[in-house]
């Protein structure tokens, strides 16, 4: 059930194919001079996928306001259809990461079939104990898994276990646990007791994990708490994941660090410890801005992929990160932002793949800082678009996903099917 007609994509590609082929051949010659086989890189890129955040296909907002666009998805089935468009055109997002209860539905097997009809599967499930649902007994105002009140903690644990049960019905293999628990005033929270309560609660969730599942702990420096956050940084996350067991690992959301923190080095540490769960890719200039991946600091994204490619290149054991986008699209068409962000992540991966590892290793060993930096920059400065275009075309996608999407009139069509949503008060969804 392809949301956009195949013929339309083929017709669109036909106008671009000859130039795309010429560009591919030319890049192939350039890379061959660097002893790099372009088809090998193409095959590796073709096997790379990044998950779409279900909460990212609707227009996002801030605490001040949200300005909905045309054809806003009304429910998880609309979201899946939009994810189907992203996968059909960009061919880099074979899975969707759901958020409960935002994506609650009455028939999970129907949802699984619908996803499969769009060529989609399900990545990590996301629990939500950072907002209260209307029929909830205990409020999360003062925390959830670390709340001082045992009944509130039990409610939060039960919700996470429910997310695992839903995920099992959908074929997901992981649960991401992000809690906003923390404090706004010095003295408001006992740091060590709150962390102990976090471990007591997550141990119960860990015990409910099926054998082949993983649990991703997501750290974040602040927001919604603005003095302290229980899982504030990779150190707290690593302590917890180490205490829980081998199925617990640390998820790195690129927007969850203080400005100028060396995120690629945190990634290297977690890889070395076998505790890298994976990523929530996005970009930021100030705080947890959830901007499009690579839109502000593309070199930083590339440097993260340089650590990932070097680990795979060296065959580091237990290295199996999950790749997900986590963005809020406040001023763009979310489908366009997600397609271009998926392509950006693919691009950073491809550029890291063409770094001459032997040249880099030799420069590092020789303390030749300039040649080491140049070896990396050479990868980053290589325009790999011809490889991404070839990967998409060979997979039945669009050489230019944004162009094909705009030509399809999909947004205008769903705007007719889905009632318009008036501007709402704040909130990311
Ligand atoms: C927290 C976060 C988390 C999601 C939420 C939507 O800031 O990154 O991953 O649950 O955004
Ligand atoms: Mn996140």
From TrEMBL:
Keywords: Isomerase, Manganese, Metal-binding. SUPFAM superfamilies: Xylose isomerase-like. One of its GO terms (molecular function) is isomerase activity. InterPro entries: L-rhamnose_isomerase, L_rhamnose_iso, Xyl_isomerase-like_sf. The keyword Nucleotide-binding does not apply. The keyword Metal-binding applies. NCBIfam families: L_rham_iso_rhiz. This is L-rhamnose catabolism isomerase.
């Amino acid at each position: 059930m392809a949301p956009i007609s195949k013929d339309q994509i083929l017709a669109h590609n036909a106008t671009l194919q000859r130039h795309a082929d010429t560009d591919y051949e030319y890049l192939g010659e350039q890379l061959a001079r660097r002893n790099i086989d372009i088809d090998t890189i193409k095959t590796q890129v073709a096997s790379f996928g990044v998950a779409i955040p279900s909460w990212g296909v609707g227009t996002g907002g801030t605490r001040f306001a949200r300005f909905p666009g045309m054809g806003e998805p009304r429910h998880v089935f609309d979201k899946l259809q939009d994810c189907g468009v992203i996968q059909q055109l960009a061919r880099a997002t074979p899975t969707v990461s759901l958020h409960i209860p935002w994506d609650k539905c009455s028939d999970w097997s129907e949802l699984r079939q619908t996803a499969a009809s769009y060529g989609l599967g399900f990545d990590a499930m996301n629990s939500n104990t950072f907002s209260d649902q209307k029929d909830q007994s205990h409020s999360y105002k003062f925390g959830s898994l670390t709340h001082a009140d045992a009944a509130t903690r039990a409610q939060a644990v039960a919700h996470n276990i429910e997310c695992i049960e839903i995920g099992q019905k959908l074929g997901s293999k992981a649960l991401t646990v992000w809690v906003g628990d923390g404090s706004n005033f010095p003295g408001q929270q006992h740091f060590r007791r709150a962390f102990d309560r976090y471990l007591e609660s997550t141990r119960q969730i860990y015990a409910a994990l099926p054998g082949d599942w993983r649990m991703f702990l997501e750290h974040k420096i602040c927001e919604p708490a603005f003095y302290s956050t229980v899982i504030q940084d990779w150190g707290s996350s690593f302590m917890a994941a180490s205490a829980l067991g081998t199925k617990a690992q640390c998820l790195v959301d690129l927007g969850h660090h203080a400005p100028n923190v060396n995120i690629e080095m945190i990634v290297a540490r977690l890889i070395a410890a076998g505790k890298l769960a994976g990523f929530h890719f996005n970009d930021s200039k100030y705080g947890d801005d959830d901007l499009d991946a690579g839109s502000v600091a593309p070199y930083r994204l590339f440097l993260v992929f340089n650590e990932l490619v070097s680990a795979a290149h060296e065959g580091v054991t237990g290295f199996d990160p999950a790749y997900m986008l986590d963005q809020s699209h406040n001023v763009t068409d979310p489908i366009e932002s997600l397609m271009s962000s998926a392509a950006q992540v693919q691009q950073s991966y491809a550029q890291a793949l063409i770094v001459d590892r032997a040249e880099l290793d030799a420069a590092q060993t020789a303390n030749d800082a300039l040649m080491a930096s140049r070896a990396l920059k050479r990868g980053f400065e290589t325009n790999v678009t011809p490889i991404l275009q070839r990967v998409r075309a060979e997979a039945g996608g669009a050489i230019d996903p944004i162009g094909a999407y705009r030509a399809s009139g999909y947004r205008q069509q769903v705007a007719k099917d889905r009632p318009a949503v008036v501007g709402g008060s704040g909130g990311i969804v």
